[in-house]
Amino acid sequence: MSWIFLFLGVAAEAMSHVALKETDGFTKPFASALVLLGYLAAFMFLGQAMKGMPVGIVHALWAGLAIITVTLLSTVIYRQHLDLTAWLGMALVASGIVMINLSQGHSH
Question: Which domain holds residue 37?
Answer without folding.
Answer: 2-106
